[in-house]
C-alpha cells in the first residue's frame, strides 16, 4: 500500500543539507518520492508500506546527520507561543547585532595582526604541538562532522576547509589554521542563523492557528485539542481569542480581524449565518460556531500548506543554482589542485580551499523565494512556489474573465420584458423556480428579485444545467429554458424583442431569454457593477510590463464592448467555457506567456492551462485549486501587486546569485594567484551569507513599508 508520510527534520542549515537528506531517503527501497523542505523543516515521503517503514525512514534521516524531533504535545506551551515568537524576534535581533560587531572586530584584528606580522611572531613563539591542540579542541565539532561525512563518502564545504586547515598545520602555520577554524565556526553559526530567519516567517504564520478550542459536548463547555473537533460540533469563541476552525456563526455577534487570512486591515462584523475563518481574531463580542473545516482543511491551513510547498516548486533559476552548487565543490577542489601543481604555493592552495563556500549558492534563491512567498501570504496573496514567481515575470498577455472577476459578480435585474400571454409577475415566478438550483450569478439575481417581491419559487420537477448556455427545468408539466442566446431553439422568433434586446445590450446589460414549451416567453436584463479598483489596477498591471489585456466573456459583443471600451481592453465575446482554454493555447503557441484571471468553475481549465492562473478571492474552490496564485480577498490591486512581487523577487534572486558568483570568482582568483593570504580567505568566506540575508530581507521590509 502506498502511504504519504511527513517527518519533521531538524539540523538542516542550507539547501545542500536538504538534498543530502533527500538523496538518502530516495535510496531506501520502497520510497517512490521524497521532498525535503529546508524552510518547512520536514520531509514529505511517498513510500510502499510493504517495503519500507516509518521507523526505517526516520533512521535514515538520523543516519545522515539530522534528527527527527517528536511532535510537541498539544497544549504544552501552546498558549505561550505569541510570547515565544516575540522573544525569538528580540533574541535574533540582538544576536544579529552582536554577530555583526564581533565579525567586524575579528576581521579588523585579523587584518591588523597579519599586516603587522603578529601571527608570524605568535607562530614562532608558541610550540607547534600546543597550537595543534588548540586548533583541534576548538574545531572538534566541525572536524567530527566532516569525519562522519567522509565515512559516508560525502564531501561538504567544510571538508575543503578542513583540508585547508590540516595543510596549514602541516606546514607549521597553526595560527592560520586556528583562524580558519574560528571562521568555520562563525560561518556555521551564520548559515544556521540565516536559515532560521527564513523559517521564521513560516513559524510566525503557523503560530497564528490556535492549538485548542472550546466546544460544547453533552451541553458542557470543554477545552479540547483542535484536531479532535469533528465537523458539525459547536465551537465557542470569546473576545481576544482566535477562531480555531472554519465555521458558520450560529449565535452571537462579533467583530473579527481577518488580516491573517485576507490581509484586510479593516475589521469585519459577523452575525448568525456568516462564515468565519480559522486564525482570525475576535476583537469584540463572542459567537458560537458550527465547525465546517478543521486543521489543514481550513482556508488558513491551506494557506500554510502553500507556503510550505513553495520550496518544493522550484523555478528554473532555483534548479540551476541547485545544480551549480552540487558541482561547485569539485570545481574548487580542481582549482586548488591546479594551484598547487602549477605554483607549488601551499599557502595559495590553502587559501583556495578556505575561501570557497558552496552554501551561499545554495541559499541564494530559496531564502529570497521563501521571504517573498511568506510575506505575500500575510497580505492575503497565496503564491504556489518559486516556479510561479519566475513564470509571472515572463508573462506578456493577461486574459480576464468578466462576471465575478472584472465585475463584482452580484448583478441586479433591471428589466423584465414579458411577451404574449405572460405578465411580469408570472414570468418572474416561473424563472425563479427554474433557476432555483443554478449557481450562476444571473440566476441568483433572478431569485433575489423574486424574493424582494415576496415570491416563493417552487421546486422544479426536473432540473438540468447546460454549461455555457443556461438551465432547463420541468415545472408543472411545462419545459422551461432560460439562458443566453444559445439557449434559444433554432428558428425561434425573436423579432418582437430584437429592438429592446439591442438597446439593453448597448447599455452593457446581460440578457436572459426565457423559453416555455419552445416559445419565447420573455427576457430579463441584468447589470453587474464594475469593481471600483479595477481601472487603477489595470494601469498598474500595464506599468509592470503586461501591455496586452483582453476581456473574455460569454456575453454578446455589444455587452462586452460596453464594458471593455472605457477600460481600454480588447475583448472576445460569445465564448463557451472550452473557448477560453482554446484561446490560452493559441496565444501560447504564438509564443506569448499568458496570465489568466478568473473565479468560476468554467474558468478552471484556462487557469490551469495558463502560464500563471490567478483566482479571485471569493471564487469557487475548483478555481482556487486550479490557479497558481490565489487572492484571499476580492481586490484587483492584489493582481497588480502579484506582478510587482514577482519582478521584485526575481530581481533579488538575480542579485543574490550575481553577488555570490562574483564574490567567489574574485576570491578564488586572488587566492589562486597567491594574492589572498589564508587568514584573510578564512575571514571573508562567511560574508556572502550575510549579504544574501540582508538583500533578501528587503522583500519583507518593502511589504511592511507598504502596509504602513
Give a description of the structure.
The structure is a single chain. It contains 25 helices and 23 strands. With 708 residues, the protein is α+β, with helices and mostly antiparallel strands. Helices cover 52% and strands 19% of the residues. β17 and β18 (519-527) form a beta hairpin. α12 (359-377) packs antiparallel against α23 and α23 (637-672) runs antiparallel to α25 (687-707). The two termini are 52 Å apart. The strands form four sheets. Strands 4, 5, 6, 7, 8, 9 and 10 form a seven-stranded antiparallel beta sheet that branches. Strands 11-23-22-21-12-19-20 form a seven-stranded mixed beta sheet, with helices on both faces. The radius of gyration is 32 Å and the shape is elongated.
List keywords for this structure.
708 residues, seven-stranded mixed β-sheet, elongated, disordered C terminus, 25 helices, single chain, 23 strands, alpha+beta
Amino acid at each position: 500500500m502506498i502511504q504519504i508520510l511527513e517527518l519533521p527534520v531538524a539540523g538542516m542549515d542550507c539547501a545542500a543539507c536538504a538534498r543530502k537528506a533527500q538523496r538518502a531517503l530516495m535510496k531506501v527501497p520502497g520510497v517512490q518520492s521524497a521532498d525535503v523542505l529546508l524552510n518547512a523543516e520536514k520531509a514529505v515521503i511517498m513510500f510502499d508500506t510493504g517495503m519500507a517503514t516509518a521507523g526505517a525512514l526516520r533512521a535514515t534521516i538520523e543516519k545522515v546527520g539530522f534528527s527527527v524531533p517528536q511532535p510537541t504535545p498539544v497544549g504544552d506551551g501552546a498558549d505561550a507561543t505569541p510570547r515565544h515568537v516575540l522573544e525569538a524576534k528580540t533574541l535574533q535581533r540582538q544576536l544579529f547585532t552582536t554577530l555583526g560587531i564581533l565579525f567586524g572586530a575579528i576581521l579588523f584584528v585579523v587584518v591588523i595582526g597579519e599586516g603587522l606580522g603578529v601571527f608570524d611572531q605568535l607562530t614562532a613563539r608558541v610550540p607547534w604541538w600546543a597550537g595543534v591542540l588548540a586548533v583541534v579542541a576548538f574545531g572538534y565539532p566541525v572536524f567530527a562532522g566532516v569525519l562522519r561525512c567522509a565515512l559516508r563518502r560525502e564531501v561538504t564545504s567544510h571538508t575543503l576547509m578542513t583540508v585547508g586547515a590540516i595543510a596549514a598545520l602541516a606546514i607549521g602555520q597553526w595560527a592560520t589554521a586556528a583562524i580558519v577554524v574560528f571562521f568555520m565556526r562563525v560561518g556555521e553559526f551564520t548559515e544556521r542563523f540565516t536559515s532560521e530567519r527564513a523559517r521564521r516567517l513560516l513559524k510566525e504564520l503557523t503560530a497564528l492557528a490556535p492549538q485548542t478550542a472550546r466546544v460544547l459536548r453533552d451541553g458542557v463547555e470543554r477545552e479540547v485539542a483542535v484536531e479532535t473537533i469533528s465537523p458539525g460540533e459547536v465551537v465557542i469563541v470569546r473576545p481576544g481569542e482566535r477562531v480555531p476552525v472554519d465555521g458558520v456563526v450560529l449565535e452571537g455577534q462579533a467583530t473579527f480581524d481577518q488580516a491573517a487570512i485576507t490581509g484586510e486591515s479593516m475589521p469585519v462584523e459577523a452575525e448568525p449565518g456568516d462564515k468565519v475563518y480559522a486564525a482570525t481574531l475576535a476583537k469584540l463580542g463572542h459567537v458560537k460556531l458550527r465547525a465546517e473545516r478543521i486543521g489543514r482543511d481550513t482556508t488558513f491551513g491551506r494557506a500554510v500548506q502553500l507556503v510550505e510547498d513553495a520550496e518544493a516548486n522550484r523555478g528554473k533559476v532555483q534548479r540551476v543554482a541547485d545544480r551549480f552548487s552540487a558541482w561547485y565543490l569539485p570545481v574548487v577542489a580542481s582549482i586548488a589542485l591546479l594551484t598547487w601543481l602549477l605554483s607549488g604555493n601551499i599557502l595559495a592552495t590553502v587559501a583556495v580551499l578556505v575561501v570557497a563556500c558552496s552554501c551561499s549558492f545554495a541559499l541564494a534563491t530559496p531564502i529570497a523565494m521563501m521571504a517573498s512567498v511568506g510575506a505575500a501570504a500575510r497580505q492575503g496573496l497565496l503564491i504556489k512556489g518559486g516556479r510561479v514567481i519566475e513564470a509571472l515575470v515572463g508573462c506578456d498577455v493577461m486574459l480576464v474573465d468578466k462576471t465575478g472577476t472584472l465585475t463584482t459578480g452580484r448583478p441586479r435585474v433591471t428589466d423584465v420584458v414579458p411577451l404574449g400571454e405572460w405578465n411580469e409577475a408570472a414570468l418572474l415566478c416561473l424563472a425563479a423556480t427554474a433557476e432555483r438550483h443554478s449557481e450562476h450569478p444571473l440566476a441568483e439575481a433572478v431569485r433575489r428579485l423574486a424574493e424582494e417581491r415576496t415570491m416563493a419559487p417552487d421546486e422544479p420537477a426536473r432540473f438540468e444545467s447546460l454549461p455555457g448556455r443556461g438551465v432547463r427545468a420541468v415545472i408543472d408539466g411545462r419545459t422551461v429554458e432560460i439562458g443566453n442566446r444559445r439557449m434559444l431553439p433554432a428558428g425561434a422568433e425573436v423579432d418582437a424583442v430584437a429592438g429592446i434586446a439591442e438597446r439593453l445590450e448597448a447599455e452593457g446589460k446581460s440578457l436572459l431569454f426565457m423559453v416555455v414549451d419552445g416559445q419565447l416567453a420573455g427576457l430579463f436584463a441584468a447589470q453587474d457593477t464594475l469593481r471600483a479598483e479595477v481601472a487603477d489596477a489595470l494601469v498598474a498591471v500595464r506599468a509592470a510590463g503586461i501591455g496586452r489585456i483582453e476581456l473574455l466573456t460569454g456575453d454578446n459583443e455589444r455587452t462586452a464592448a460596453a464594458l471593455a471600451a472605457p477600460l481600454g481592453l480588447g475583448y472576445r465575446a460569445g465564448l463557451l467555457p472550452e473557448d477560453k482554454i482554446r484561446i490560452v493555447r493559441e496565444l501560447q503557441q504564438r509564443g506569448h506567456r499568458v496570465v489568466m484571471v478568473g473565479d468560476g468553475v468554467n474558468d478552471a481549465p484556462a487557469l490551469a492551462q495558463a502560464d500563471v492562473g490567478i483566482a479571485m478571492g471569493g471564487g469557487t474552490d475548483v478555481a482556487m485549486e486550479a490557479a497558481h496564485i490565489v487572492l484571499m480577498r476580492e481586490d484587483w490591486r492584489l493582481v497588480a501587486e502579484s506582478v510587482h512581487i514577482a519582478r521584485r523577487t526575481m530581481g533579488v534572486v538575480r542579485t543574490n546569485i550575481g553577488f555570490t558568483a562574483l564574490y567567489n570568482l574574485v576570491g578564488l582568483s586572488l587566492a589562486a594567484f597567491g594574492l589572498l593570504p589564508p587568514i584573510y580567505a578564512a575571514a571573508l568566506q562567511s560574508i556572502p551569507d550575510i549579504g544574501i540575508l540582508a538583500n533578501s530581507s528587503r522583500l519583507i521590509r518593502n511589504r511592511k513599508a507598504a502596509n504602513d
